[in-house]
Design a protein that fits this description.
The protein has 75 residues and is mainly beta. The protein has two helices and six strands, in the order E-E-H-E-E-E-H-E.
């Protein structure tokens, strides 16, 4: 079941299925956000922005306006 990373609201494991913004692909790739990568949604800040995900053993903070461009599958 595909969703956008910005739609996830509770801790769960996910697999990145794609990035739907060509202008952000390089930025995301530098952070390790690439297709096929398994991530874990951890928590969101008060008022839901930004969110925190675990990827490759580190915690990455991402604003919701960026997270809406990351497509994920539920594990």
């Amino acid at each position: 079941m595909k969703k956008l990373l910005s739609e996830i609201k509770h801790t769960q494991n996910l697999i990145i299925s794609g990035v739907n913004s060509p202008s952000l692909e390089a930025k995301f790739a530098e952070m390790g956000v690439v297709s096929g990568k398994e991530i874990r949604w951890l928590f969101s800040a008060p008022f839901s922005d930004p969110i925190a995900i675990e990827i490759d053993g580190y915690i990455l903070s991402m604003r919701l306006d960026e997270a809406k461009h990351v497509e994920v599958d539920l594990v």
